[in-house]
Amino acid sequence: MVLLVSGDWTLQYGSSDGPRLDMGEHGRSTKSRLQKQVPDMSADKKGSSKKDHRRVVCRNKKARFQYEIVDTIEAGISLLGTEVKSVRGGGGSILEAFVKFENGEAWLVNAHIPPYEQAGSHFNHESRRKRKLLLKGKEIDKWSRKVQEKGLTVVPLQMYFLGAWVKIELGVGRGKKLHDKRAAMKERTDKREAERAMRRTD
């Protein structure tokens, strides 16, 4: 056994396990302090995944049937407190909603958010009021030009919670012709039949 001693550590040779470093009390305490200073990245990852989780409240199933969607964008939406609570409870429909551009701003029109049952009638919201969409100015300019110059339509595709915030996915597209709608309907029917056949084989 050969020992090399220096300050707070001892290096031992000759053991069956090979050379071994003993850091001593001061070395172990230093190592412990270093370990405590390393951030727990796994906790941050868990928190970020939970924060970024998307919980869909409602979808506009007719939009992709009626329109050929060529581009999408995520927008915030300005809601009242009773509206947020109603949406959190699963209330809301965007089937008949559309987007309108006025004076450099974007608005969601005719979306239905039912009154919040726990609030009195005097403190509730109007269910189909016009609601402001939160987009950057350059995004509003870009999308409003598509509507004006190319004859496209902007429709809401889905409403969802992203963390604590209510978001709207918007799509811009052109109306499908009758034969396009028939082709889309046939494709959906074929897909449903294929899924039923797979379930029967299982």
Descriptive keywords:
3-stranded antiparallel β-sheet; 32% strand; 7-stranded antiparallel β-sheet; globular; 6 helices; Small Protein B, Chain: A; 10 strands; alpha+beta; 37% helix; 2 domains; 202 residues
Summary?
The chain is an alpha+beta fold and 202 residues long. The chain has helices spanning 24-37, 41-51, 63-66, 81-88, 137-150, 178-201, and strands spanning 2-6, 9-13, 20-22, 54-59, 67-77, 98-102, 105-109, 131-134, 153-162, 165-175.
Commentary on this structure:
The chain has 2 domains: 37 residues, no CATH class; 143 residues, Small Protein B, Chain: A (Beta Barrel), CATH 2.40.280. The protein contains 6 helices and 10 strands, in the order βββααβαβαβββαββα. The strands form 2 sheets. It has a 7-stranded antiparallel beta sheet with strand order 4-9-10-5-8-7-6. It has a 3-stranded antiparallel beta sheet with strand order 1-2-3, with no helix packed on it. Strand 9 and strand 10 form a beta hairpin. The N and C termini lie far apart (68 Å).
Topology of helices and strands:
Layout: E1 2-6, E2 9-13, E3 20-22, H1 24-37, H2 41-51, E4 54-59, H3 63-66, E5 67-77, H4 81-88, E6 98-102, E7 105-109, E8 131-134, H5 137-150, E9 153-162, E10 165-175, H6 178-201
Antiparallel strand pairs: 1-2, 2-3, 4-9, 5-8, 5-10, 6-7, 7-8, 9-10
What does the radius of gyration come to?
Answer: 30 Å
* pLDDT averaged over residues: 78
The coarse silhouette is globular
> Strand fraction band?
25-35%
Largest sheet: 7 strands, antiparallel
Relative helix content: 25-40%
Looking at this structure, what is the CATH superfamily of the largest domain? Small protein B
SSE order: EEEHHEHEHEEEHEEH
Q: Return the domain count.
A: 2
N-end to C-end Cα span: 68 Å
Number of strands: 10
Model regions low in confidence, pLDDT < 50 over at least 5 residues: 29-50
**CATH architecture field of the largest domain:** Beta Barrel
The number of helical elements comes to 6
CATH topology of the largest domain: Small Protein B, Chain: A
Structure class: alpha+beta
Assign the CATH class of the largest domain.
Mainly Beta
Provide the spatial order of strands within the biggest beta sheet: 4-9-10-5-8-7-6
